[in-house]
Amino acid sequence: MKPSQLLFGTAGTPKSSRKRNSISGIERVKELGLGCMELEFVRGVKMGEATAADVRKRSQDEDISLSVHGPYYINLNSQEPEKIDASIERIYRSSRIGSLCGARNIVFHPAYYHKDQPEKVYEKVFSLLEQLESRLNDEGIEVILRPETTGKGTQFGSLEENVRLGAELENVLPCIDFAHLHARSNGAENSYDEFSATLELVENELGREGLDDMHMHVSGIEYSEKGERNHLNLDDSDMQYSELMHALKDFKVKGLLICESPDNEVDALLLKTTYDRL
Q1: How does pLDDT run across 76-121, given as a tens digit for each residue?
Q2: Residue (of 210, 125, 135, 207) closest to 175 by Cα position
Q3: How many Å apart are CA 51 and CA 103, to the nearest integer?
Q4: Helix H segments across 44-117?
Q5: C-alpha dihedral over 241, 243, 247, 253, to 10 degrees?
Q6: DSSP annotation string for 210-239
Q7: Which ranges of 139-251 does DSSP label H, i.e. alpha helix?
Q8: For the stretch 213-225, what's the b/e string if a residue is b when 16 or more beta carbons lie within 10 angstroms of its beta carbon?
Q9: Whole-model pTM over 0.85
Q10: Spatial CB neighbours of 243, under 8 Å, sequence gap ≥ 6
Q11: DSSP character for 149?
């Protein structure tokens, strides 16, 4: 179910969770006054169906919205066909188990350009996601696939590419990582006007529905001329997060905002507090 407001939460279990598992994370997110949590399948989908059912029940009991971040080892433009097949299977399994957990949004880093032209990579990613979308529909797995905006110029996943995928495929929408956009542009994409331009692009290409059903990542970030290096806490970075919160409020954005800072819960609360005060 799509949220009727903008919810704030953590990438993975909050650091102060009593245990490092999803159910404990959901409980701690609720205690903190946050509204969502991203299940991190980044090292592989290791959760079984019984655990997924327990996670679903607890998230419903606590009224916490869940999403999933799929494994890092995904490259839909690999030069090796078996790695493409494995990548598709990882997204599929993330979707199946995520759906059993009650997660609707399945986030993943889509591909690398290698030496291919961006349009050729786009066509390949589009075709593979179209096939996967059909498979998921046939199996009754109701999820939104969320290719994430990536933090390096060598990676497929610019804002324009991912929004275009969302416009051209039925059950695909972008995951907009504002820290990645900032790093990918080597320090730009970090002002109210630039954040507003991003949201305007989403609305122009995806309609009001695009702003009413967003999935976002926010954190501080260290970067070089080559793009992303590593995530930072917000106040240890140059990320103008108050300007971003202002833009999100002005555009009346709804959906999930996931904080990927190293201290995920502190920064998630900082973002929520900043937003609520506007």
Answers
A1: 999 999 999 999 999 999 999 999 999 999 999 999 999 999 999 9
A2: 210
A3: 14
A4: 49-62, 81-101
A5: 20
A6: HHHTEEEEE-EEEEETTEEEEEE-GGGS--
A7: 159-168, 178-184, 192-206, 208-212, 241-250
A8: bbbbbbbbbebee
A9: yes
A10: 190, 191, 192, 195
A11: P
